Amino acid sequence: MALKYARTRCTVGSDFDRARRQQKVLEAVFDKVTRVGMLPTLIAQAPQMWQTLHDSMETDLTLNQIIALARLASQVDSEDIRFGAINGEYTIPYVTED
Of 42, 55, 59, 80, whose CB count within 10 A is highest? Predict the structure, then answer.
């Protein structure tokens, strides 16, 4: 359901609203994983998840580097995280010619 919420384009603000929703989902995932104590369980499952997902993503990070970043992220206070997105205020409407 969260994925559908984040990807929906049929809103008044179109892509601007979608970007805001995606940020909310990422913030909620971060909070759940780092604050509810899920990180040790996820780290234990990391090799299996890596095996399942590695063909569906591209990164130059190793699994050990990703785990180290996850541990580091759990030390970040969510109050110190800032999100930002371009909204309609910073754009100029333009329609391309056919």
Answer: 42
According to the model, what pLDDT value does residue 5 have? 61
Q: Which residues of 49-87 are buried (b: 16+ CB within 10 A; e: fewer)?
A: eeeeeeeeeeeeeeeeeebeeeeeebeeeeeeeeeeeee
CA distances, 25 to each of 21, 38, 55, 94, 96 (Å): 6, 17, 24, 30, 33
User: Two tokens at 17?
Assistant: 């609203």
Cα dihedral 33, 37, 43, 45 sign = negative
Q: Would you say 43 and 67 are in contact if contact means Cβ atoms under 8 Å apart?
A: yes
